[in-house]
Amino acid sequence: MSINYQWVLDEWDRFLKISERDKVDVIDGDALKTVYRYPVPDNEVKQQLSIVQLSMETVFEGWKWPYSGHSFVQQVKEMRETIHGCIPLIARRGEIDANLKPDDPGPQIAADDLHPWVWSAAKPHWDSGNDRAAIHAAAVNINSRLRKKLGRFDVSESRAVREAFSIEDPQPDRPRLRLCSKDDPDNFKSVHVGAVNLGCGLFGAVRNPVAHLPDDEHDLTEQEALECLAAFSLFARWIDRATVEQLKE
């Protein structure tokens, strides 16, 4: 999910408006004193300050709240100055990116856009920093979904894949999953043999090592782990959209 930069700017603008203190004359006993007050209750300013802090940490990766030891009034003042300096970076981000980024990074994979079978299983482990467990959980969930769709709980992961996408006709209690029709025999064979190879490859070369090998023998970078999840996501989409072909009576 991408950042809504207009919402960020609107929230910053609201903070600037409610955090600008007004000079007010008040009577203190017999004396007339001048004080400075926010146009809204302090608690409302504090709440908006928290929203602005979170938006800063999200928009600018690596940004940390530097004002925790300051008084509330000083925190507000420092944040106002920070916002004024950052507004041009957001408002003119297109122009800045076009002129300062040397290379086009290309499209990026968003984890929460992966197939739900993958991300729903992987997310708790990914959020805790355990990438290997995230991959394993995704693989287990896909295997369960595949067996459920086939109605086959008597075969191993790789055997389930081979049975599902076999180019052979279905047999009693052995249905198939079809990604395309048999109108073009060569394409039909190519697609389903490819699905078998991808699925068996994922369970054999990706799922098994993360499940059984120690970290020092099979270490993955975060990028590699995300690419593994993306590969499982593609396979999950194939399973999800495939039609079940039963033996015709």
Helical fraction: 55-70%
Low-pLDDT runs: none
Q: What kind of assembly state do the chains in view correspond to?
A: single chain
Radius of gyration: 28 Å
Structural class: mainly alpha
End-to-end gap = 47 Å
Major sheet strand order? 1-2
Number of helices: 9
Topology pattern, helix = H, strand = E: HEEHHHHHHEHHE
Quick one: overall form?
Answer: elongated
Strand residue percentage? 5-15%
Largest sheet: 2 strands, antiparallel
Annotation, overall tally of beta strands? 4
Mean pLDDT, rounded to whole units?
88
Question: Helices, strands, pairings?
Answer:
Elements: H1 5-18, E1 22-28, E2 31-37, H2 42-59, H3 72-91, H4 93-100, H5 116-127, H6 131-150, H7 157-164, E3 176-178, H8 185-212, H9 222-241, E4 243-245
Antiparallel strand pairs: 1-2, 3-4
Helix pairs in contact: 1-2, 1-3, 5-6, 5-9, 6-7, 6-8, 6-9, 7-8, 8-9
Descriptive overview:
The chain is mainly alpha-helical. Helix content is 59%, strand content 8%. It contains nine helices and four strands, in the order αββααααααβααβ. The protein has helices spanning 5-18, 42-59, 72-91, 93-100, 116-127, 131-150, 157-164, 185-212, 222-241; strands at 22-28, 31-37, 176-178, 243-245. The strands form two sheets. Strands 1-2 form a two-stranded antiparallel sheet. The longest helix is centred in the C-terminal third of the chain and has 28 residues, at 185-212. The radius of gyration is 28 Å and the shape is elongated.
